[in-house]
Design a protein that fits this description.
It is a single chain. The chain is an alpha+beta fold. It folds into two domains: 67 residues, no CATH class; 68 residues, no CATH class. Helix 1 runs antiparallel to helix 3. The longest helix has 21 residues.
């Protein structure tokens, strides 16, 4: 099972890779005719990779001159939509891969392991029957202060707490 630090590092790396994959330098553009709201016509350079328009609209005379006197082809909305669809699907895959459920698919079995039982018992023993949160009730839970070393926690990363204190610790989840 990866540690939380490894998990977070992998997640960050996946998002960086996604950003690189969908960063467009707009190196290949073509002049296109775009009809905008209200029926007005604009002449813009459209990136042939991501579909974005890349300049301020040109006057019709300049656009016709740039296209050799003929009307430029229509703006390709589908090109932009397909790029956005691929970007969005790739982002969803990362979200699924690093979802809370994905983490807990590894974490939950660990909580049932002999290694966790041993650490848990050591922390409860250290607490000597008193919640380390409120100092009043008996501890029933062992809470991770950090998930950085999950599976190989230092005992100081774990605290013995009662149910009420454990609920408070997780109230933001």
């Amino acid at each position: 099972m990866p540690t939380m630090k490894q998990y977070i590092d992998q997640k960050i790396a996946a998002w960086h890779e996604h950003a690189e994959q969908f960063k467009c330098e707009h190196a290949d553009t073509l002049l296109r005719r775009r009809v905008i709201k209200g029926g007005a016509v604009q002449y813009v350079q459209q990136c042939q990779r991501c579909g974005e328009s890349r300049n301020q609209p040109l006057a019709k005379a300049k656009a016709l001159q740039a296209s050799g006197g003929s009307e430029p082809p229509p703006f390709d909305d589908e090109l932009r939509d397909e790029w956005e669809q691929r970007r969005s699907e790739a982002a969803e895959q990362i979200k699924e891969r690093f979802s809370r459920e994905a983490f807990f698919a590894d974490y939950d079995p660990y909580l049932k392991s002999p290694a966790w039982a041993k650490r848990r018992n050591l922390v409860l023993k250290r607490a000597a029957g008193i919640c380390e949160g409120c100092g009043e009730r008996p501890p029933t839970q062992v809470h991770h202060l950090s998930y950085q070393n999950v599976g190989a926690e230092f005992l100081f990363e774990l605290v013995a707490v009662c149910e009420a204190c454990h609920d408070r610790l997780h109230q933001d989840h």
